[in-house]
Write a structure and sequence with these properties.
By secondary structure, this protein is an alpha+beta fold. It folds into two domains: 2-148 and 195-200, Homing endonucleases (Endonuclease I-creI), CATH 3.10.28; 211-332, Homing endonucleases (Endonuclease I-creI). Helices cover 51% and strands 20% of the residues. The protein contains 13 helices and ten strands. It has helices at residues 9-36, 41-48, 53-56, 64-75, 101-111, 131-138, 150-170, 176-190, 211-221, 246-255, 280-290, 298-311, 316-332, and strands at 2-5, 76-82, 88-97, 115-118, 123-128, 197-200, 222-230, 233-242, 263-267, 270-277. Strands 2-3-5-4 form a four-stranded antiparallel sheet. A four-stranded antiparallel sheet has the order 7-8-10-9. Strand 2 (76-82) and strand 3 (88-97) form a beta hairpin. Helix 6 crosses helix 7 (150-170). The radius of gyration is 22 Å and the shape is elongated. The chain starts with a strand and ends with a helix. Pfam families: LAGLIDADG_1. One of its GO terms (molecular function) is endonuclease activity. Keywords: Endonuclease, Hydrolase, Mitochondrion, Nuclease. Residues 69-162, 214-306 form the Homing endonuclease LAGLIDADG domain.
Length: 334
């Protein structure tokens, strides 16, 4: 049986420090490799100039990497594929509706690499495709057990192994035939999470998940809304939803001291687990956790939602107007 153990924020910070200590060594390695193989020394120099963990944490008092991992657990994707000509492509991406393009441009500006492009009529994505940038810059920044959802943890595990094999092939440590054989096998494995692959979540731990991860995950999967409780009575609510992550939602419930239990929801033939609360006492505690910490367009929603909670709670007409305006804003920016 496969297991990934959950970790505390303190353990995660220690691992991040260790990763950062190795960063300069890794970048010296890639620079030497590029020069030796007459590749692009310009790319190696660019890798050296990319932001350190300390710089990334500016504007993220709860840790940028933890926030980034939470966002990826919700809306990120790691995959690799082989073209008909036999070449391999490795891609990391974060997808968002067009109305939240602000979040994708924030990632590009913060990480100082990657690109943003449209992905259909209603969505866009931030992506990194350069395997050297992925291998030497992005992946070393993630701590052990960075991802808390089964799907993303398994996906990342396969991606990380595949990219390592690809780089070994590029430096002639293994043959092209061996490389392709290993990569095809991993690609097949990555398509479906094994039933016995588990991410273990600590039982009743106030430090788990970390606040940074929770803010990032909420950026992707959280909803700050107004719910019609009864006729002419709108109440403030917060919710999170996941298809196969009841234990993770239970961990969030315990961390935030939410009294309502995780429930199973259904729409048509689709089932998912949902954690939600409309408790005034709970929301009073949640507002300072998320207000001014969300980076995408949801920051505007949270600010207006929180302000109305403080000033307009119980005022049906004011809340109805806000609900309408928030819905229209999404439509006009899609």
């Amino acid at each position: 049986m496969f297991f990934l153990n959950g970790q505390s924020a303190r353990e995660g910070s220690t691992l991040l420090v260790q990763k950062e200590q190795n960063r300069c060594f890794l970048q010296n390695q890639v620079f030497a490799w590029f020069c030796t193989n007459q590749s692009s020394p310009k790319l190696a120099l660019n890798l050296r100039q990319m932001p350190s963990l300390q710089r990334l944490n500016v504007g993220h008092p709860d840790n940028f990497i933890n926030w980034f991992c939470g966002l990826i657990d919700g809306d990120g994707n790691f995959y690799f594929t082989q073209s008909q000509k036999g070449s391999w492509t490795f891609v990391f991406k974060v997808s968002q509706p067009n109305y939240n393009l602000k979040l994708l441009t924030y990632l590009k500006k913060k990480l100082k690499c990657g690109s943003v492009k449209k992905a259909g009529k209603k969505a866009s994505q931030y992506y990194i495709k350069n395997p050297e940038v992925l291998f030497y810059y992005l992946l070393p920044k993630f701590p052990a057990h960075a991802f808390l959802t089964r799907k993303k943890a398994w996906q990342f595990s396969c991606f990380q192994k595949a990219l390592d094999i690809y780089m070994q092939g590029k430096t002639n440590k293994i043959s092209v035939h061996e490389r392709n054989l290993f990569l095809k096998n991993l690609q097949q494995q990555s398509k479906e999470v094994p039933l016995d692959f588990k991410v273990q979540h600590p039982n009743k731990c106030k430090n788990y998940p970390s606040l940074g991860w929770l803010i990032g995950f909420t950026e992707a999967e959280g909803s700050f809304y107004l719910n019609l409780k009864k006729e002419k009575c709108l109440v403030h609510g917060v919710s999170w939803g996941q298809k196969d992550e009841k234990e993770l939602l239970e961990a969030i419930r315990f961390k935030l001291n939410i009294q309502v239990k995780v429930s199973l929801s259904k729409k048509n033939q689709f089932f998912w687990y949902k954690l939600s609360t409309t408790s005034i006492q709970t929301i009073e505690k949640l507002v300072p956790l998320f207000e001014k910490k969300i980076k995408g367009i949801k920051a505007v929603e949270v600010r207006k939602w929180a302000r109305s909670f403080r000033k307009d709670r119980g005022n049906y007409e004011a809340l109805k107007k806000l609900q309408y305006n928030l819905r229209q804003a999404k439509k006009h920016t899609s």
